[in-house]
Amino acid sequence: MRRTRNTSLDAVVTDFLLLGLAHPPNLRAFLFLVFFLIYILTQLGNLLILLTVWADPKLHARPMYILLGVLSFLDMWLSSVIVPRLILNFTPASKAIPFGGCAAQLYFFHFLGSTQCFLYTLMAYDRYLAICQPLRYPVLMNGKLCTILVAGAWVAGSIHGSIQTTLTFRLPYCGPNQIDYFICDIPAVLRLACADTTVNELVTFVDIGVVAASCFMLILLSYANIVHAILKIRTADGRKRAFSTCGSHLTVVTVYYVPCIFIYLRAGSKSPFDGAVAVFYTVVTPLLNPLIYTLRNQEVKSALKRLTAGRRDVGGEK
């Protein structure tokens, strides 16, 4: 059981100081530009996919691309919750965040992150049905069912975020108030609590680590069946198309889940590498999603060409 600090102190924490990522002072301007550029590219890239799926009738009528559009929407908001506060770490601005602001950031981070976690699992299930059950796919995964599953992922993510935020901020915080991290996240905040955090760490392990690991295993199981089905395809071109469709999703899933599991299955860790690892699934993954899904997905590229050609035609008529 974790040793607790004295809670009889009169001081009560009203705000926290986010220490951010450790970095050499001479690289501050460079890192500011890097993360600022990442944020802008993340927003533009995901907005492009979202608009493409919405505008192209061939895409927004298919569950796979409905899920991709939702993923882009989530990435835009997740990046907005994390990166602007991270960028402040490389400026002279105050690093303080109000107690309520810290709680809000933790809630939205876990709400959006867990919803994304469930969405990746749904995307793997969709690909499994499309490749392993092609004749029954229109019945097993139609637009109505896809909408219900996405809504369920949002509700589950909201419940998860509420539970984690309530459990974390019901504890007393009487100082110090320096969070050795770049966001208000559970392991970093719990280290400042003036009470025993054993229950919180156990819930974090079960609710985040085990759930994330379970979703990851379900995804791997789906893709094991997918690979088995693909190997049965006789034509090389058919195998190539199937692998191309699934390869992009599996790449993003690996980049997202492996660091996530690494962080939350080690909730009590104080490793200096945790911040660098967390950057992958909080900052890098939202940037990679539009790049991977546009560069490796022929249908998205074709839709972009159709939209571009349509705008040129309209411009020519004018």
Automatic annotation (TrEMBL):
Domain G-protein coupled receptors family 1 profile: 45-293
Keyword RNA-binding in record: no
Keyword terms: Cell membrane, G-protein coupled receptor, Membrane, Olfaction, Receptor, Sensory transduction, Transducer, Transmembrane, Transmembrane helix
TM regions (residue ranges): 29-53, 65-87, 107-125, 145-163, 208-231, 243-265, 277-295
Membrane topology per record: Multi-pass membrane protein
GO CC annotations, alphabetized: membrane; plasma membrane
A Gene Ontology molecular function term of the record: G protein-coupled receptor activity
Signal peptide: none
PANTHER family from the UniProt entry: OLFACTORY RECEPTOR
Record's protein name: Olfactory receptor family 10 subfamily G member 1
Organism for this UniProt entry: Mus musculus
